[in-house]
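Journal club side-thread
Mid-discussion, someone asked how the predicted structure for our own chain would compare to the paper's figures. Pasting it here so we can look after the session.
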Amino acid sequence: MLPFSLDKLAHSNLSALRGRVRGVFVTFHGMGEPPLRDGLDENERDFARHGILWLYPYCGPWSWMNRATVGFVEMLLDHVWEACDLSDDAPLIVNGCSMGGFAALVFARDSKRSVSACIANCPATDLVALCEDRIDVPRSVAFAHRGEPGDVHDWMREHSPLHKVETLARVPYLLVHGDADQAVLKHRHGDPMAAALRDAGHDVEYIEVPGMPHCGPLPDAVVTRMHRFVLDTVGTDVRESAGRS
């Protein structure tokens, strides 16, 4: 049971939804992003018009989708499924940028609830490499590891999607990475992740964006492709949904 109502625990577009919920889209935030969002942007309103519930849970500044965070998000989703009377096979898409992209990949793997598709923009995929490249990451990983079993160095490798490709969910993946990203280096994360997924027989689309720094701004064509990826996963018809208020 939730300790507070859903709107107090997570930002969502629930207030803009009309009619039945066709699918759920969860965005995981990056490291250090502010926990509060006010109002709805046009993307959130557009998803509402298509019957897609957009959920933006706050998972703590340095969670790295540890076991406690997976459990917290599962609790939120259990409430959503019950409140919206969703079937067990209702589409669930997870999405995120940077640490949020890492979180999307890990949640799709570790959650008890089946994920339908995953989008990751400039995702960190290798905690070992990221700890070598940035001074803030070892501190955040050490914090996230509290309560986890084993040595932190072993946990980093076991927890990293790039090192455990064989355990990742068999779902469609859409990866995006800019070649001007200096925070999460493309050649250390996006490139090897896409290659490893392909080598393991996963369904993966990899969009490489020339000149794009960390997480954006995304070109319009990439935003449109990501949007279409979500709609195709949910199975909504643009013409059918356009008439709903």
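Post-session note: Residues 101 and 120 are 4 Å apart (CA to CA).
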